[in-house]
Amino acid sequence: MLSPAAAAAAAVRAAAGSPAAVRSVHALLLKEGLAHHPPSSAVLVSAYAKSCLLPDALHLFDETPRRDLYLYSSLLSAVSHSMSPALAIPILHRMLSADALRPDHFVLASIASVSARLGSLRLGRQLHSHFVASPYNGDDVVKSSLVDMYCKCGVLDDASKVFDSIGAKNNVVWTALVSGYASNGRSGEALQLFRSMPGHGLFSWTALISGLVKAGESASALKLFVEMRRGSVRIDDAFVLSIAIGGAADLAAFVLGRQLHGSTMRLGFLSSMIVGNALVDMYSKCSDVQSAREVFEGITFRDIISWTTMVVGEAQHGQAEEALALFDRMILAGIKPNEVTFVGLIYACSHAGLVQKGRQLFDSMKQEYGINPGLQHYTCYLDLLSRSGHLLEAEEIIATMPYEPDEAIWGALLSACKKYNDAEICIRVADNLLELRPKNSSTYILLSNVYAMNGKWDSVAKVRKSMTGLELRKEPGYSWIEVGREFRLFHAGKCHLM
After folding, report:
1. Same structural domain, 454 and 491
2. Which of 186, 202, 270 is nearest to 237 (CA)?
3. Nearest to 32 by CA among 58, 16, 12, 54
4. Do residues 312 and 285 lie in contact, with contact meaning Cβ atoms separated by under 8 Å?
5. Is 11 inside any structural domain?
6. 489, β-bridge pairs
7. Which of 63, 105, 356, 391 could form a disulfide with 139 if both were Cys (CB 3.0 to 4.6 A apart)?
8. Are residues 471 and 417 in the same domain?
9. For the chain, what is the radius of gyration of the CA atoms?
10. Which of 234, 167, 162, 188 is nearest to 176 (CA)?
11. Which windows of the sequence hold PPR repeats (predicted)?
């Protein structure tokens, strides 16, 4: 027969995942005097965290009079997987000082996970030093966590050294190192390591493909996805499909994107939020806004990413009215806009010439939503002012904004100077732009054109002479083309030998 404490722990585990159920069991345990019994409180802490009730977990922890290593381990594990991993650091300090407990291998693994999520190499190295000097220095679980930490911090050589020291390497640690190499742009080593793995499951394939997409190597990622699909791995996971769709979006690979859409329909993921968001992004980047709208309307539960992706898609294709109407729907649905939402909205106003609406949106960011405009917001807003001929106002904002103006900002204003034939501002802007990029041929060309429009032929000659002296020429353009399932890069003026 189970002891009261064991029965309480079993009841809490059964309730985990349901906030109402966890609180009900907690109330029952309080009534029976078991809530602060060490095993019960540890399981309750974990259950609260799994039910997205971390504040309740922390409150229970504070009220528990006798905090043992098991309770600390449960809380640190819960915090390491929560949305607030940084909370683990003061908890660890409390454990070491106030309660004078020494971390075991479970605690060390949790802190390694926290270091990885925070990208804190300093904390990770401190942990590693403590681990080497501890009685648990041969623990492969902690070593696996250290491999993941070093990979997330971009220190791949140290990750590889720890990996080599692991005796029995499981699929998780293999996958962590593969993902680390792929995510940090070392795709050749990632593929070599992947090929040498003892077995490839959906988890390892997904990590490699996701890492390549993250590193901007979408073409390689899609080739691997096609290889995986042709193999024996069953692709029945929404996350995997969303990654592949994201790769197709990055390359604007419309044919493959449509095929992946068909796969989501067959597998029943069409209403999935994560897949739906990826499809909306893919269709938008492939210029099929109508299909993006249809997918968006079919998503059962939409989050901020769903709404923002559709707003940005409408904006990028010149559908300002649709983007603004969607924003109104979003607010009515109780979704708070984020930084990216406003980038899309102000961009839409810029390309539609909606100066007053753009001003209103830019001002509302801070006033209504507590969002400080970033450099991208200023870039879009200044583009709006420049396109509409408010050149002096744009120049004044550049002088007072809390960011150093970059090439995109000066370039937009310079193009507007040509459009509105303002030679005075053009010269000032060109000087600033050439300070950033002294050999930018397009700046010289625009400046020369403005001089020519104003009949200043001596100045035109000087600009042309400067270009010749710097050996400047116009950079050729390039583009991707999808041929079957291959992705090829073409430069302007070149042909591709098939």
Report:
1. yes
2. 202
3. 12
4. no
5. no
6. 480
7. 105
8. yes
9. 28
10. 162
11. 170-204, 303-337
| Cβ-Cβ contacts under 8 Å for 33 (sequence gap 6 or more) | none
Long-range contacts (CB closer than 8 Å, 24 or more residues apart) made by 375-381: 375/403, 375/406, 376/339, 376/343, 377/339, 377/342, 377/343, 377/346, 378/403, 378/409, 379/406, 379/408, 379/409, 379/412, 380/343, 380/346, 380/347, 380/350, 381/346, 381/350
Residues 405-423: tens digit of each pLDDT: 888 888 888 788 778 877 7
Q: How many residues does the chain have?
A: 498
Q: How many domains does the chain fold into?
A: 2
Look at the alpha carbons of 175, 177, 180, 185 in this order and tell me if their dihedral is positive or negative: negative
The CATH number of the domain holding residue 409 is 1.25.40.10
The candidate with the shortest Cα–Cα distance to 428, out of 449, 406, 413, 412, is 413
Nearest to 373 by CA among 414, 334, 401: 401
**Tens of pLDDT, residues 115-132:** 999 999 999 999 999 899
> Does the pTM of the predicted model rise above 0.70?
no
